[in-house]
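Dear colleague,

Thank you for sharing your sequence with our group. We've completed the structure prediction you requested, and as agreed, I am returning the results in plain text so they can be pasted directly into your records. Please verify that the sequence below matches your submission; if there's any discrepancy, let me know and we will rerun it promptly.
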Amino acid sequence: MGAILERFRLWLLRYWLGRNLANIISVTGFVGAYLFLFYFNLSITEKLTGFITMVPFDWADGKVARWLGVTNGAGKVIDPIVDKLRNFLVLYFLFLNPELVFKIVMGLISLGEIAALVPIGSATCLAFKYRRDFYLKNRKRVGWKGYKSIFKYIISDVMENWSVNQDGKTTMGCYGIMFGLIVFRSKWMERDELVYLYLIFAVIGFYFRYYSFLDYRETLQEWQNGALARATEAG
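Please find the predicted structure tokens below.
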């Protein structure tokens, strides 16, 4: 059985579909989440349940990428972007349905998620600027190949230095429990005690998001110390 799976893996890698299968799974999960939340004519509970059925796609894309051995490249960028977009999708949906959760809670969570993106966004912009300036200094124009090289450099120098820290994992765990309580309350038990319970997990999650942001900011400062030198040496 192991030999058959290995042959199948090698066969997949010969084709574009195989090399991008993990990315396709990731994007499919996002599209499915969008359709359930905003397109299909379903009840609120059915929309939330449909969204939950798309969550395993986030687990599956990583498993497939590691199995195929394609953990580098565009997937390094696509996967975290899709994850964040899906998170904002459900936050926006809950914001549009205040009977499920207080708007101020969704506002604070959204603020924390945006803040967590600022350090890595800043590093990406700086890496692009440093590398592009290096190209323009040595050439009259960058060109398509130059931008492709810049993109690969950003993946290697920025994305490799960022991963979800422990505070970030705790944050998403708290938000996941909060979301589960909201779905449970909307479908089976409309009790005020559950409101207080999901608010507690929302506050705990926001607390850890704050410390997660501080860690990302420190990572940005450490990365920035040698970013300009790496951008010019990589040429």
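Summary note from our side: DSSP finds eleven helices and no strands in the chain.

Kind regards,
the structure core
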